Amino acid sequence: MSAAHPLAPEVPAGLAVAQPLPDLYPPRKAYGRIHRTWRRHPTIMIGGAILVIVALMAILAPYLWTVDPTAISTSRRTRVPSAQYWFGTDMLGRDVYSRVVYGARVSLLVGFAVALLASLAGLAIGLVSGMVRWADGIIMRIVDGLMSIPPILLAIALMALTRGSIENVILAITVAEIPRVARLVRGVVLSLREQPYVEAAVTTGTRMPMIIWRHILPNTLAPMTVQATYICASAMIAESILSFIGAGVPPSTPSWGNIMAEGRALWQVKFYIILFPAIFLSLTVLAVNLVGDGLRDALDPRMAKDA
Amino acid sequence: MPDLKESALLSVENLQVHFRTPDGVNRAVDGVSFSIQSGETLAIVGESGCGKSVTSMSILRLLPEPPARLAGAIRFEGRDLLSLPEREMRRIRGNAISVIFQEPMTSLNPVLSVGRQIGETLRLHQGLSRKDAEERAVEMLALVGIPEPRRRVREYPHQLSGGMRQRVMIAIALACSPKLLIADEPTTALDVTIQAQILDLMRDLKRRVGAAIMLITHDLGVVAEVADRVVVMYAGRKVEEAAVRDLFRTPRHPYTRGLMGAVPRLGAAERPGAPQRLAEIPGMVPSLKTRIDGCVFAGRCPSVTDLCRSHAPALEPKAPGHLAACHYAPKDALAA
Amino acid sequence: MFGFLVRRVLAVIPVMAVVGLFVFSLLSLAPGDPAALIAGDQASPADIERIRASLGLDRPFLVRFGEWAWRILHGDLGTSIFTNLPVTTMIGQRVQPTVSLMLVTLIFAVLVAVPLGVVAAWKAGRLVDRLVMGAAVLGFSVPVFVVGYLLAYVFALELGWLPAQGYTPIEQGVGPWLANLVLPALTLGLVYIALIARVTRATMLDVLQQDYVRTARAKGVAQGSVLFVHALKNAAVPIVTVIGIGIALLIGGAVVTETVFAIPGLGRLTVDAILRRDYPVIQGVVLLFSFTYVLVNLAIDLLYTLIDPRIRY
């Protein structure tokens, strides 16, 4: 005890000193910074790592021992996986491995494009709705109406109007996702408007764009980022569903949904044609969802304890 | 002098409660001992965060483990509650030991009727039927002074005022005639007039039911009014214990003296030379997440010495029945 | 209460009006000539002209919308371009499989998801919680049809326990009916279970922190009763809400699930209609699904008063 205090006075004789009590928990190990981040946000780290790998796969597709993903060959139809055809070949003799690697491009493009477009459009609509009283009623009626159409059904209905192309798929899914973002942004704006510092800014004559830029936007950023990751995940799923029922990207473009749609007819005998793209798609969506959950916990302290 | 521990209804021995938190272990209670005799009212006093509520929660074993970890012993009628199986423990909760919580507004379940919440205890511990339990619930409501008990028994908590809700809490706690009633700041959340009513009610009911009361409070006025004996806690430790009169007459620990200085006293300002302001204890309660080698009060003590900072004083008798943990507390001659 | 009821029911009207307007204007929103679009690539100019006339595309938009809405209010959803049958008849033929599938899924999913969420909240941070929540994230990440084919492959093809495809009407016996629905319901239920379990867990975590839960424990109430009576009753409103909102997932999922399991329901009808660009059918199905969704959520709003005595309209 006294070793810790070299200047401690001599203990007078007969003085009653309390005996130290045991620790009920063993002392904690000290962790380095990376280890600490890992322990706090393991989901972001895992999800981020998977996403980086998938992104590299999409960018480097031509150099990953792939062949032309659209090359048709009648002589090598429906081969099982082997050293030559890692994931086998499909009904038209196309190399499933190459198609899966190239398919990452479509999924990532659709996921991120929809997340970005829906966020921007939703932000604009939500801001107008939250700031401009007379517009709010009209916009919210429309949003309510659109939200009462199940999103996949909405996207399917929109795709039925147009020829299948990646742009149209992105647009259809975006329209289906916008109402949710608009609702979210409007909610944040309305609650911020009640805040004393925003009211003060309004009464002191700060101009509207300034208020939005300084007070509203920074506060919508965190919930919108989380929402955007979830939109990215559900857009990838939606793309695969659209392709799967034949209302998505054109069959010539390799997308994970397309490969599975083509494997559909053979699912009872050549299950691997569905299995390989399914694993890649699920892992990628899982990674985005993990990042989303991690961001939600990190950005919203109230939710963190629920994690 | 008879061995108090042997005859005690409840005796807490060297209780330690530590919590694991993201940034270290919180030693919320560290080596606290006290006992309560049948029919006695013991007050546990201290600032918020001193570990008094944690102590009461550990008596009923209501702290989730982990993050909490408990050591020591809590003997109730001779049985160590800390080693009792959960089934046995449930039979004690709300039956032999019951609690009145601090927050009457939030401590009642908003979606269950008042009658059901009182009756539940009776059905659990006395095996009453739903009908009999409701009948008893009406009687209990009448006992705690709620008008029109037959109508109120069907109502939900949000239909009652704060004072009435606390009366319902008392009715729940007393339904099974407990031997020990733990009252955790029972009046803090209430208006002053209602505070007095609730205190009167508790005193009255104690006479009728004969329960021992463990009163947890930071309000010395309440202590002086209802307690027999007082335990003063600071930073998870017991720093002083005495009969209520001894404590108020000669507080021996500097922290207790500080607490009493912080109580507004009627007419205090008129006395010549008396301090015009309410005394405050300077400084902050130390973090319980690091080990404290010396006296826990050293950081705020007006008469601190180097000895205090390096060596924690043991809790020892300073007068008959009067314990204090301070190297410099005045010590009377003790009977050998 | 009555006033609220009237107001809440009236609020459905503008929502359905927007849905109707959207569904109707789908055709006009499409780039290019809608009649040509519907007719397809191989259509002759005469075909296109015939379709244009049958859709009344030569008259002003608002007039057409008015007429269309008027007919729908009288229960006439138009005639299929492909089969020439009334859309209501086609829907009527396909209702039973879809309603069966959704009801079985709903009941099964709620019975599984709520206890899972409650246990996860109770054991928050422990292994059970991590497993349940991990499974939930996975459930959100795997597309419905992949789950369907996996289940069909394992339980129908490999193990042979259940039929892989098709639907048996309930009139032919509850046993065969249910046997055909087990795999589709599992498939369709997965995302729904994940959603409900997550919301249940989050709400229960909040409720378990409340003072009245501590009071219940201090009274000696057993763990099961603390969780499922004292806490769950307080968590009911958000859980019931998400069950209602999640119906949207069920509807979207049914379209895919019925395709995977070759169930002749409304979802299959939707997919066929889209592939054939059979517009009146698409409009009818989207309207019907949305109307059901709105009605279910209206019913749930009214249910709140029964769950929570504090809510009074």
TrEMBL record, chain A:
Residue ranges crossing the lipid bilayer per the database entry: 43-65, 106-130, 142-161, 271-292
All residue ranges annotated as the ABC transmembrane type-1 domain in the record: 108-292
Keyword set, alphabetical order: Cell membrane, Membrane, Transmembrane, Transmembrane helix, Transport
Keyword Cell membrane: yes
InterPro entries tied to this protein: BP-dependent_transpt_permease, MetI-like, MetI-like_sf, OppC_N
Any one GO biological process: transmembrane transport
Protein name: Glutathione transport system permease protein GsiD
Native source species: Methylobacterium frigidaeris
Lineage: Bacteria, Pseudomonadati, Pseudomonadota, Alphaproteobacteria, Hyphomicrobiales
UniProtKB/TrEMBL annotation, chain B:
Source organism: Methylobacterium frigidaeris
Primary location group: membrane
Any one GO biological process: transmembrane transport
Gene designation per UniProt: oppD_1
Family: Belongs to the ABC transporter superfamily.
This protein's UniProt keywords: ATP-binding, Cell membrane, Membrane, Nucleotide-binding, Transport
Residue ranges annotated for the ABC transporter domain, each copy included: 10-260
GO cellular component: plasma membrane
SMART domains attached to this UniProt entry: AAA (SM00382)
Name of this chain's protein: Oligopeptide transport ATP-binding protein OppD
From TrEMBL, chain C:
Organism: Methylobacterium frigidaeris
Gene Ontology MF terms: dipeptide transmembrane transporter activity
Transmembrane segments: 9-30, 99-122, 134-157, 177-197, 235-261, 281-307
Keywords from the UniProt entry: Cell membrane, Membrane, Transmembrane, Transmembrane helix, Transport
The ABC transmembrane type-1 domain, residue ranges: 95-304
Membrane topology: Multi-pass membrane protein
Superkingdom in the source lineage: Bacteria
Protein name in UniProt: Glutathione transport system permease protein GsiC
Family from the record: Belongs to the binding-protein-dependent transport system permease family.
Major subcellular location class: membrane
Subcellular location: Cell membrane
GO cellular component annotations of the record: plasma membrane
Keyword Cytoplasm: no
Lineage of producing organism: Bacteria, Pseudomonadati, Pseudomonadota, Alphaproteobacteria, Hyphomicrobiales
